């Protein structure tokens, strides 16, 4: 083989910015195969036009993209690679936004205290009959799920027509953020003595909620958008813990005023957590 246009692995390493060890690893994983391997010495040689590919691999790995995804992206062509890079950038910006919000929230709690930003009150919640649509998801799929769920429930309610007894709300059975999935239930309360829903689509149910006591706080505008709203959940949880109550059910996000746009300044949400007297040991 004519080796004039080939670079030995040491020179290729210098040109590409990838270590010899990394190049051997990417060869073994099928990401970047050498153009020629000496059958006697086992020494690897690369074509000069492979330098740019190696540099792209180095950059993708610096973005913490897994090796398996690097191989797929390089095989998929420029359009797929560009789309993946834009998606990665949006995700990175989202993570930075969450981290910035968390830092500001912690700094605020250190300097002002949680009570200064979130006033927690207690109210009684009546027994309710509700339409429910549930799904297990993380925050990335929350808005889309809630839009579809409430659209379906309002269509069912309109056939009744049902009489609503309060604002729509969401129940979170665990942590729902960018790293954790949980069961999320979209809920729509209606009058149990009036018209009742019929022909429910698959996955939609009617449920009875007992009367309860709720620890609550309200947030408006930007404070009602994710991730800022997480501070409201923390405030209510802290209040429940500090006042010796027991958590008696999933946390609720109640739509007191909702424009349809998550970060709209006119939005007003209530975070309400069912509580009970702690059980005797």
Structure explained in plain terms:
It holds the Pfam family MerR_1. It comes from Streptomyces gardneri. This is MerR family transcriptional regulator. Keywords: DNA-binding. One of its GO terms (molecular function) is DNA binding. This protein has 281 residues and is of the alpha+beta class. The chain has three domains: 71 residues, Orthogonal Bundle (Multidrug-efflux Transporter Regulator, Chain: A, Domain 2); 33 residues; 156 residues, Regulatory factor, effector binding domain (Multidrug-efflux Transporter 1 Regulator Bmrr, Chain A, Alpha-Beta Barrel), CATH 3.20.80. The protein contains eight helices and twelve strands. Strands 4, 5, 6, 7, 8, 9, 10, 11 and 12 form a nine-stranded antiparallel beta sheet that branches. It has a three-stranded antiparallel beta sheet with strand order 1-3-2. The chain is elongated, with a radius of gyration of 28 Å. The model has no long low-confidence stretch (mean pLDDT 88).
Secondary-structure blueprint of this entry?
Blueprint: E1 6-8, H1 9-16, H2 20-28, E2 36-37, E3 44-47, H3 51-62, H4 67-76, H5 78-111, H6 114-117, E4 121-125, E5 128-137, H7 142-159, E6 169-172, E7 182-190, E8 204-209, E9 212-220, H8 230-242, E10 246-247, E11 251-257, E12 268-276
Antiparallel strand pairs: 1-3, 2-3, 4-9, 5-7, 5-8, 6-7, 6-11, 9-12, 10-12, 11-12
In short:
The chain contains eight helices and twelve strands. With 281 residues, the protein is an alpha+beta fold. InterPro entries: DNA-bd_dom_put_sf (IPR009061), MerR-type_HTH_dom (IPR000551), MerR_fam (IPR047057), Reg_factor_effector_dom_sf (IPR011256).
């Amino acid at each position: 083989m004519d080796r004039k246009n080939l670079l030995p692995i040491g020179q290729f390493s210098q040109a590409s910015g990838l270590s010899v060890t990394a190049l051997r690893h990417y060869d073994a994983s099928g990401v970047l195969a050498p153009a020629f391997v000496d059958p006697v010495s086992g020494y690897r040689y690369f074509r000069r036009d492979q330098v740019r590919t190696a540099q792209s691999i180095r950059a993708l790995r610096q973005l913490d993209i897994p090796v398996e995804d690097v191989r797929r992206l390089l095989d998929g062509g420029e359009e797929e690679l560009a789309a993946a890079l834009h998606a990665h950038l949006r995700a990175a910006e989202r993570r930075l936004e969450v981290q910035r919000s968390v830092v500001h929230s912690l700094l605020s709690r250190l300097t002002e205290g949680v009570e200064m930003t979130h006033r927690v009150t207690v109210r009684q919640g009546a027994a309710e009959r509700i339409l429910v649509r549930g799904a297990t998801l993380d925050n990335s799929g929350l808005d889309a799920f809630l839009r579809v769920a409430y659209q379906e429930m309002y269509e069912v309610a309109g056939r009744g027509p049902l009489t609503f007894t309060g604002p729509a709300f969401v129940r979170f059975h665990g942590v729902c953020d960018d790293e954790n999935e949980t069961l999320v239930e979209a809920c729509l309360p209606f009058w149990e003595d009036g018209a009742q829903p019929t022909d429910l689509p698959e996955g939609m149910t009617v449920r009875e909620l007992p009367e309860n006591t709720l620890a609550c706080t309200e947030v408006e505008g930007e404070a009602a958008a994710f991730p800022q709203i997480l501070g409201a959940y923390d405030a209510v949880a802290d209040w429940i813990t500090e006042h010796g109550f027991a958590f008696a059910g999933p946390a609720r996000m109640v739509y007191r005023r909702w424009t349809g746009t998550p970060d709209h300044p006119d939005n007003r949400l209530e975070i309400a957590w069912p509580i009970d007297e702690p059980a005797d040991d």
